[in-house]
Amino acid sequence: MKPTPPARYDSTAQVPSLDLKPVPPQGLLTAHPEAGTCLPRRRRVALPGASRSSVACARAHAVDALREWQVDDDIVEALRLIVSEFVTNAVVHTASRTIEITVSVTATEAIVTVTDQGLFGTPIAREARPGEEHGRGLALVDTLATRWGSTPLADGTQVEAAVTLPEQMAGAL
After folding, report:
1. pTM (2 decimals)?
2. Parts of the chain with a pLDDT under 50
3. SS3 label, residue 110
4. Residue 131: what pLDDT?
5. CA distances from 66 to 73, 130, 162 (A)
6. In a 10 Å sphere around its CB, with 0-12 CB exposed, 13-18 middle and 19+ buried, how is residue 161 labelled?
7. Which residues of 27-49 are buried (b: 16+ CB within 10 A; e: fewer)?
8. pLDDT tens across 6-23, in order?
């Protein structure tokens, strides 16, 4: 069995069966009218691109971070599904060596970003025909996310989705 390359992770939390190494945190100050200036919370992990187990690890990474930051359960579930879709697409449709997943929370929204090394093109939500087993994932993302989109990179594609935090939570993090 071929060994899995080590993942990079910027938290002390562990993802089962992966050798995790620290990643320096990235933080930019943002301003929120009611909360003043706050530091966004951000976690990043890089997982093997050719492994379907990366999907489950990415979901666990996102859920652990969001729960630690006390994000509302409905938003955690929405982002868990979005991470699952984005990472599944990267694993299935690209030949990426690694896939990087970033989960962050600002004063007003929770965001997930997935970067792969594939040149698959711009993902587009489409309507699946009855009986099709695939093709509904990005339509689900479109329904769950407040905003989402993709950016072609020189060496891959980056997809990002955000969900607006409820008013009582916005700025409280």
Report:
1. 0.70
2. 1-37, 125, 128
3. strand
4. 58
5. 9, 35, 13
6. buried
7. eeeeeeeeeeebebbbbbbbbbb
8. 344 333 333 444 443 333
pLDDT of residue 169: 60
The angle, 0 to 180 degrees and rounded to 10, between the axes of the packed helices 73-93 and 137-144 is 150
Distance in angstroms (rounded) separating the CA atoms of residues 93 and 27? 31
Q: Is 123:89 a contact under the CB 8 Å cutoff?
A: yes
User: What confidence score (pLDDT) does residue 123 get?
Assistant: 58
CA Rg value for the chain: 16
Tell me which amino acid residue 17 is. Answer: S
Q: Identify the CA nearest to 4 among candidates 34, 44, 49.
A: 49
| Residue 8 pLDDT | 40
Coil vs helix vs strand at 58: helix
How many residues are given for the chain?
Answer: 173
d(CA 12, CA 39) in angstroms, rounded, equals: 19
Contacts of 144 (CB under 8 A, 6+ apart): 78, 81, 82, 161, 163
Judge contact between 94 and 116, C-beta under 8 A. yes
